[in-house]
Design brief:
This protein is of the alpha/beta class. The protein has one domain: Tetrahydropterin Synthase, Chain A, CATH 3.30.479.10. α2 links the parallel β3 and β4. The longest helix is centred in the middle third of the chain and has 16 residues. It is elongated and about 60 Å long. This is 6-carboxy-5,6,7,8-tetrahydropterin synthase. Belongs to the PTPS family. QueD subfamily. Pathway: Purine metabolism; 7-cyano-7-deazaguanine biosynthesis.
């Protein structure tokens, strides 16, 4: 069993509705995302993927499509009755606004990202962990073994 990790980065703004600190204001982060998968390398010498658990390019495509392209330079907000009018006003000017049913904390986003990525992995490859850095020194981690 071998683990592979690929790192991704994106810029994203968010606000934490109802929060009792400065993060209730719109602000941004330079996120770093580490996705680790595990599996047994392909043993068929005739396969173009011989010796690989998964092609790094395939992992890049999956995470790029599901996470990076969607969230890079986006504003992420939790849908609440209080922010409905502000959302409608912003949508007239800005196109990359993502509304979530959850508070867009690092913890909730890493769980959401893990669920989306796991559903897209090829047969024989499992999601092992996802780590999302919100800042250089603050991150949340999701491990499959903790979520059985």
């Amino acid at each position: 069993m071998i683990r592979l990790t690929k790192e991704f980065s994106f810029e994203m703004a968010h606000t934490l509705a109802g929060y009792d600190g400065p993060c209730r204001e719109i602000h941004g982060h330079s996120y770093r995302l580490f996705v680790t998968v595990r599996g047994v390398p392909v043993r068929d010498p005739q396969s173009p993927k011989y010796g690989m658990v998964m092609d790094f390019g395939d992992l890049k495509h999956i995470v790029g499509r599901l996470i990076v392209e969607r969230y890079d330079h986006a504003l992420v907000l939790r849908e609440t009755p209080e922010n409905h009018a502000a959302l409608e006003a912003m949508r007239g000017t800005y196109t990359k606004i993502i509304v979530t049913p959850y508070q867009p904390t690092c913890e909730n986003m890493v769980e959401d990202f893990a669920r989306a990525i796991a559903a897209e992995l090829p047969a024989g490859v499992e999601l092992f962990s996802v780590k999302l850095h919100e800042t250089a020194t603050s991150f949340a981690e999701w491990y499959a073994s903790d979520n059985l």
